[in-house]
């Protein structure tokens, strides 16, 4: 506490006030002495910390030098990694080109074998094997054939195309023969070969025509049998039509995306026969008095 504050706080003109001011000064003196003693007692510790900090600062230079060395090593390693990566990319490119060359060579060899294999299989009536050869030919990369032609060789596709057309003609003829004989197993077996030779739509058309003929025959047989009502023969006829549609659906799985072709062929047969059936029955005198007449507006 400052002297002016002591003079204001205590009346030093009296002994009592003077004694109180003296006591206050002594108290502050003791506090200052204690604070100085504490500071002096920590002097050694502070000096030790200062020495430690000085030594650490000295080592920072060494750490900086080591860090620079490490950074240089990392940079050199990165450069080496980039060089190695470039070499690896070059090796990958070379490997892919070698693989492409091998694949094209194999395609050309297979192309020659397929052409001869189709002809031999047709002569042996082994149409499954012949279709397999054509399917292999269709799956080949066009670039393989283009590479062969670029070297001045004859176009190997000509012989294969002729063989594939010959196989197609044989399959159509055999399918029609099986359809006339109603050989169900042969019909299904031959139909499954058309998608393999790239003639899925043609195969579906042949199958649909065959099923349409079978359906018409079945519907006529169903409606020609005696029945007590109009509904029974028509139900049997429509069940026959539904069976044909289901069979077309199952077989069309071998030619994805072509089911609508078969249904478009079957639909006119079923509808025309159903309309004809209703027309004949509705013009029968027994049915003229029923409500069926109003549906089709047929005059008596």
UniProtKB/TrEMBL annotation:
Organism of this sequence: Manduca sexta
InterPro entries with a match to the protein in the record: COG4, COG4_N
Gene Ontology BP annotations: Golgi organization; retrograde vesicle-mediated transport, Golgi to endoplasmic reticulum
Domain Conserved oligomeric Golgi complex subunit 4 N-terminal: 55-145
Protein name: Conserved oligomeric Golgi complex subunit 4 N-terminal domain-containing protein
UniProt GO cellular component terms: Golgi transport complex
Pfam families, sorted: COG4_N
């Amino acid at each position: 506490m400052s002297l002016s504050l002591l003079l204001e706080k205590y009346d030093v003109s009296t002994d009592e006030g003077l004694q109180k001011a003296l006591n206050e000064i002594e108290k502050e003196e003791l506090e200052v002495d204690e604070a100085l003693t504490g500071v002096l007692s920590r002097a050694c510790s502070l000096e030790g910390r200062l020495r430690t900090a000085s030594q650490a600062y000295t080592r920072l230079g060494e750490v900086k030098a080591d860090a620079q060395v490490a950074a240089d090593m990392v940079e050199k390693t990165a450069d080496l990694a980039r060089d190695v990566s470039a070499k690896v990319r070059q090796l990958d490119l070379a490997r892919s080109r070698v693989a492409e060359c091998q694949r094209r060579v194999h395609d050309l060899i297979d192309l020659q074998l397929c052409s001869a294999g189709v002809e031999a299989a047709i002569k042996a009536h082994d149409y499954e094997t012949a279709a397999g050869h054509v399917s292999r030919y269709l799956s080949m990369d066009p670039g393989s054939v283009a590479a062969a032609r670029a070297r001045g060789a004859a176009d190997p596709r000509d012989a294969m195309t002729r063989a594939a057309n010959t196989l197609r003609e044989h399959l159509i003829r055999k399918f029609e023969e099986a359809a006339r004989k109603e050989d169900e197993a042969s019909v299904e077996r031959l139909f499954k070969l058309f998608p393999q030779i790239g003639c899925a739509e043609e195969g579906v058309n042949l199958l649909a025509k065959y099923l349409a003929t079978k359906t018409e025959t079945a519907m006529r047989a169903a409606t020609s049998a005696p029945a007590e009502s109009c509904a029974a023969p028509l139900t049997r006829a429509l069940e026959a039509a539904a069976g044909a549609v289901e069979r077309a659906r199952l077989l069309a799985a071998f030619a994805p995306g072509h089911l609508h072709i078969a249904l478009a062929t079957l639909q006119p047969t079923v509808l025309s026969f159903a309309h004809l059936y209703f027309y004949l029955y509705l013009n029968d005198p027994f049915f003229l008095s029923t409500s069926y007449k109003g549906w089709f507006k047929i005059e008596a």
